[in-house]
Amino acid sequence: MRLARFRDLTLVPVILLLLIVGAVLDPTFLTAGNLTNVLQQQSAISLLVLAEAMILIAGKFDLSLESTVGTAPAIAVMLVVPVAAGGFGIGLPGVLVIPLALLIGAAIGAFNGFLIVRFQLSAFIVTLAMLIIVHGFLQGPTEGKTLFQLPDSILYLGSAVWLGLPAAVWIAGVLFAAGIFGLGYLRLGRALYAIGGNADAARAAGIRVDRVLYGVFIMGGMLAALAGILETGRLGAIGNNMGVGWIFMVFAAAVIGGVSMDGGKGTILGALTGVLVIGLVQNILTLIGVSGFWQPVIYGSIILVALMISRIAGGKAQD
Amino acid sequence: MKFHVEARNVVKRFGPTIALDGARIAITEGETHALVGRNGAGKSTLVSILTGLQGADEGEVLFAGEPAPALADRDAWRQRVACVYQKSTIIPALTVAENLFLNRQSSGGTLINWRALQVRARELLDTYEVDVDPRALAGDLGVEQRQLVEIARALSFGARFIILDEPTARLDGPAIERLFTRMRSLREQGVTMMYISHHLDEVYEVCQSVTVFRDARHIMTRPVADLPHDELVAAMTGEATTAYEARLHTPGDDVVLSGEGLTLAGRYTGVDVSVRSGEVVGLAGSAGSGKVSVAETLAGLRRPDAGTVTVNGTRVRPGDVTAAMRAGLGFVPEDRHHEGFVPLLSVGENATFPIARKLGRYGVVFPRLRRAKAEEMIGALDIKTEGPDQPVGDLSGGNAQKVVFARALVDDPRALVVINPTAGVDVKAKQALLGAVEDAVERGAGAVVVSDELDDLRICDRVLVMFHGRVVKDMPRGWTDHELVAVMEGIED
């Protein structure tokens, strides 16, 4: 544990360095307003990182999370709003829209789990297919149109401010705290590490491996749906491309945060530092006026450099 | 008579194959009972039935005269029987303490108290005198320490019966001795043990009685003390066989493989080896002696800091396996699962990798030529397989090792380097493999045999004993076990 804790904090110097660099490059960087802005922008994607970190630690994979971000809230909204606003015309009560979205996220996760755990298909290919299918379920019903007229209930969480900070930041913060705590101090959380490290050994130790994996995929789907709800509230609409392309950033954040693609290694705290690094870099690049079209080069380079550093520090060859 | 553990008339089928056919075993309280048999005799299936991982199709299992608990009741099983499996069940990324208390990290309540967990782990390790830091990552431990952690964990559930499934397979000589000392002290504390091993001398050393399985059936159960070695082997193989008889070789004058002044920091220093045609040279030593590294250097798998390797008169570029093979070297690596074969590829393809260039033209391999060559090797080494197209991963350990030998021998090498040739294979396969080495030598090759097993070294014309990275003695044929071990341990020079 002691060693693991220490490894969690390897990105802290990088975060400090970024804060210093940002402050030097642009005077508005170190203002409360800007930093709050960074946190709010990252809150939705951070929930995906949380979900992916848990799934990776358990030794699996989920690419479809990014499609759930747009599809879960969109379908939930369409079940509620009238046809004129782009809905199905079923007209369920508006207060149900958040529970519905979470339910859809859970259902997608459960289906992933079914294919991967029960059918024993490759998690990579299954969720790649699901990434395409689930995004299709956003484009199909909306016919590519953006949903503008949304019930107030779905807008609230992404736009409200609690005690001076956006509600989304509070929510992400609380969930990360729960994740750090749960994976560090609960038997169920430790079971993820055991399964990702050696599933046979976990089974021999009495862990219900299949059930835990199902739970992880369902949890992942729900977190992705929640991320979609927060993003919807922040933007005030559900676009056709919501969530598209996020998964690369999610993996980048998880991996530079020390979560292993081979399973069984990494922590939620580490993943959180990964999100913060990505968020700060993004913010600094925007502030100093680097074109959004060039930013991917920088992000890709960050991942490579992070991998090289961990290869040199860890000394072991990576698969 | 009441037995501590008993299995009666157990039948277990896997589809069309019968893994156990009316098998039985009865183990008296406080004894160490060996279970032996060739690969596929049903030993592993019995282990999974005795540990409650699988249910028997027929028959019953009794603990202290009571019927075994329901399969779903893992806790009840764990209080009755503990098992140290052949495959490690340690999770490398977690600490020793967490591995010990996996899925029961919290003693009470739901929260894990890491400090209390460490204290409990410390106590458990102290109880069984295991000198390992509970805070260390399990992946950083050596094989022996991991195994001790597994034994401590197995016993911590309160079971008084423990199954050790081939515990010595990956340990070196001194570590095996320490394991045996530990087993004896457990026995003095009244722990009953079932011991599975391919090494019959170990059975004689630590067990009081032995049960033999063959072809899914129980063959015999006897006290070890008055059981002749030959009779035990005969019971296992179903025919009267004698111990392997090493042949006499007539070494020629030409040196086919030599290493001069080989040095690799941290592994070995100033090693000279020279093998003549028709000669078998053994390399012996304990795990850290550097014997495997020297052999891997001769084969080109490792690049030495200094020194030269000459194969069949050609000075080979150091660290270049391809060059060594072209010069006429055949190589059987230490761990067949790791470097020996590609499990998903066929027997034929695995066996002919080194000569693929000779089986076709312009980079194309002709399937017909490969098939013919593969069938020739299957016949020569008596590999039990459905044919050249069967994946090697489906074969038993002994036959998979024969495929590795086929790969080494397929180009009729002038020099042969084999490391642990008989690891994890049964008596008959062992004899066939040693025979294959001697056959090659009689055809004029020179061989280097590295092994932890004294039996393998008996075919050597001389044995170079290594200690801490240096060759300390060159022992001609005719050594006794005691003499050789004494030199290996550095007790005598």
From TrEMBL, chain B:
What residue stretch is flagged as signal peptide? none
Q: Does the keyword Metal-binding apply?
A: no
Q: Which keywords, in A-to-Z order, does the entry hold?
A: ATP-binding, Nucleotide-binding, Repeat, Transport
Q: Which GO terms describe its molecular function?
A: ATP binding; ATP hydrolysis activity
Pfam families the UniProt entry points to: ABC_tran
List, for all copies, the residue spans of the domain called ABC transporter: 5-240, 250-493
Keyword Transport carried by entry? yes
- Which InterPro entries does the UniProt record give? AAA+_ATPase, ABC_carbohydrate_import_ATPase, ABC_transporter-like_ATP-bd, ABC_transporter-like_CS, P-loop_NTPase
The name this protein carries in UniProt is Multidrug ABC transporter ATP-binding protein
Q: Which organism is it from?
A: Nonomuraea aridisoli
